[in-house]
Design a protein that fits this description.
Elements (H helix, E strand, L loop, with lengths): L16 E2 L2 E7 L12 E5 L18 E10 L7 E6 L2 E2 L1 E6 L2 E7 L5 E4 L7 E10 L27 E2 L3 E6 L3 E10 L4 E9 L3 E8 L2 E9 L3 E5 L14 E7 L2 E7 L4 E4 L2 E4 L2 E2 L2 E6 L13 H13 L4 E4 L6 H10 L2 E5 L11 H17 L5 E5 L17 H14 L20 E4 L3 H13 L22 E7 L1 E3 L19 E3 L2 H17 L3 E7 L22 H12 L3 H4 L1
Parallel strand pairs: 23-24, 23-31, 24-25, 25-26, 27-28, 28-31, 29-30
Antiparallel strand pairs: 1-12, 2-3, 2-4, 4-10, 5-9, 5-12, 6-11, 7-8, 7-10, 13-14, 14-17, 15-16, 15-18, 18-19, 20-21, 21-22
Helix pairs in contact: 1-2, 3-4, 6-7
Length: 573
């Protein structure tokens, strides 16, 4: 079995039983198969069509079925028996022995089904039907709406693509934990939600040493004073371990002691100005598509970014696996919590409910991760990709921003990365693929208080720059070879492409050093994000190829790291 590790160390019980591995599988949907064996097989948690799934791609299919037997004991039936799904894209129906036990809509967030009422001691058949059609006005991120990948759209991800597991709990149990770190007071506030009444006890340790505890009635927010102070910082993922007790239930978790906010134009981490030297990470893998083949692969992606001097990433157009965020937490790797917002028609307010329901689940799932320093629910809410004439409804953007701030007031929120911005945002964010000279001209005007990046605001709407902190969340995207030096490239259908192309390594390095040095010198800029860390299918403008092999010599990679590591003007003020 691959991917047998616990998928979410922030909420871990000893009763975890991994259900990854070989399942029975078939394309399509057949209501008569709710309690029947299926002819084919698939390797869960890899989506059908990925190399690791063992199932050939079939781009015409929008439905698939999974089935397997699970063993249940009499002891299991004495408490709650729950099957968890990390994610299944897009709409899932779950059956046990032919009885419906759960359903979920949304391809990026977890769901669970209590199966005790339909279970019996011995063998039981678990069946899942999944429907996914990216043409249905639902969030789908960078998944292609065509039969094939093209431009900046990649392979489809249909079906189960995160870990499935079984969990046993008492009837009275811990439902959720929210941590509110308090750097100033050297403590953490913990809101523990429980099913049932009783006493909650929290024990906190650091590297095995007890550093604090608290107890109180279920439902109260408890404060744990910390005997040792260890701040979570960029490159130093210092984590406190937590054990929560409630009656017969025990959950293991962790938190990082850190504070994030903006002050003026500066991004502050624990009160210190930190320039966000980010790189774009699409979260795609050659062999697993949306799903990393191993924890080591997740760790590698973080390590290769840090090796080039990046202190974080924009996790682009996807809700990444909780286990990946855990590795970011451990590494002290800053990230934006983003959503797979493409696929939704932003001019259609009927889509807002679908969008907000799953986005709220994503924020709730990832609230405790110290690595997430900013929420970014939307990307480039420009003209409709389908007709090019319909633009987004500003109320859609404003509602998403307001909902995000209501869900989490502890983090900054960028309403839209790259525009069109709405009436409220914590950061004025923009994209620019205009090459060095174009970027420089735009940035100088932005520093003068008049940013005019393309499509940052919708003309005639009245939205405008109000002095918010400035951030450049996409630039670069440069390919090596294939075109004349410095030639601007359009997005092609299937050919390898970049936003620009240079002739050779030396030309790229000169461009990169010059551009990054200029951006770091901009005293009003709080951060940047370079496009991108690695190639994805036909989009071949990464610093590494799709297999994560360096595209440059060791000396060239060292020059990229040195450029990124230079001090930023905003960090020195």
């Amino acid at each position: 079995m691959v991917r047998s590790e616990h998928p979410d160390p922030q909420f871990k019980r000893a009763s975890y039983t991994c259900l990854n591995g070989q399942w029975e599988f078939a394309w399509g949907k057949d209501g008569s198969k709710k309690n029947a064996a299926l002819a084919g097989t698939v390797e869960v948690p890899f989506c059908p069509g990925s190399a690791l799934s063992g199932v050939p791609a079939d781009a015409a299919q929008t439905d698939c079925m999974y089935s397997r037997e699970i063993e249940v004991t009499e002891k299991d039936l004495a408490g709650r028996l729950v099957v968890h799904f990390g994610a299944a894209d897009h709409r899932a129906e779950v059956y046990l022995n032919g009885t419906p036990v759960g359903a979920h809509e949304g391809g990026y967030t977890p769901f669970a089904a209590e199966i005790g009422g339909a279970a019996k001691a011995g063998k039981n058949r678990l069946t899942v039907f999944v429907h996914d059609d990216v043409r249905e006005n639902v969030p789908s991120g960078k998944q292609t709406p065509k039969q094939e990948s093209f431009g900046c759209f990649y392979s489809k991800v249909t079906g189960i693509w995160q870990t499935v597991w079984l969990e046993r709990t008492p009837r009275s149990y811990i439902k959720s934990i929210r941590f509110y770190p308090d750097v100033a007071r050297a403590c953490v506030h913990a809101a523990v939600a429980c099913e049932g009444e009783g006493t909650v006890r929290i024990e906190v340790s650091y590297k095995g040493r007890p550093v604090g505890s608290a107890e109180g009635a279920a439902g109260q927010t408890l404060t744990v004073m910390l005997g040792e102070t260890h701040l979570w910082e960029a490159g130093c993922g210092r984590l406190y371990d937590v054990t929560v007790f409630f009656g017969e239930d025990t959950v293991e978790s962790y938190f990082g002691l850190r504070d994030v906010r903006y002050e003026g134009k500066k991004f502050l981490l624990n009160g210190k100005s930190v320039f966000q030297r980010f790189v774009l990470d699409q979260g795609y893998y050659e062999d697993g598509l949306y799903t990393a083949p191993s924890v080591a692969a997740m760790q590698r992606d973080i390590a290769i970014a840090q090796a080039l001097g990046f202190n974080g990433a924009r996790l682009h157009q996807k809700v990444f696996e909780p286990r990946y965020l855990y590795e970011c937490d451990r590494a002290g790797y800053l990230v934006w919590g983003e959503y797979a917002s493409w696929g939704v028609e932003y001019g259609d307010l009927r889509a807002k409910g679908v969008f907000l329901r799953e986005w709220a689940e994503a924020v709730e799932r990832d609230f405790n991760h110290p690595c997430i320093v900013t929420w970014c629910p939307l990307n480039e809410t420009w003209e409709s990709l389908n007709d090019g004439k319909t633009v987004r409804d500003r109320r859609f953007v404003d509602a998403v921003y307001a909902a995000t701030k209501a869900l989490d007031a502890t983090r900054p929120c960028i309403d839209v990365s790259g525009g069109y911005h709405g009436t409220s945002t914590d950061v004025a964010d923009f994209h620019c693929y205009a090459g060095y000279e174009g970027l420089r001209e735009h940035m100088l005007r932005a520093e003068a208080g008049a940013p005019d990046f393309p499509k940052m605001y919708l003309l005639g709407e009245g939205t405008k720059y109000n002095g918010e902190p400035l951030n450049l969340s996409e630039f670069g995207g440069v390919s090596l070879g294939g075109m004349k030096a410095e030639q601007t490239c359009c997005i092609l259908e299937q050919d390898g492409w970049g936003y620009e192309a240079v002739r050779d390594e030396e030309a790229f390095l000169r461009y990169y050093e010059k551009t990054v040095a200029f951006l770091l010198s901009c005293g009003q800029l709080s951060g940047f994000c370079y496009t991108q860390l690695y190639d994805v299918e036909q989009e071949q403008n990464g610093l590494y190829d799709y297999a994560r092999r360096p595209k440059f010599s060791a000396a060239g990679m060292a020059r990229i790291r040195k450029a990124n590591a230079a001090a930023a003007a905003i960090e020195q003020e």
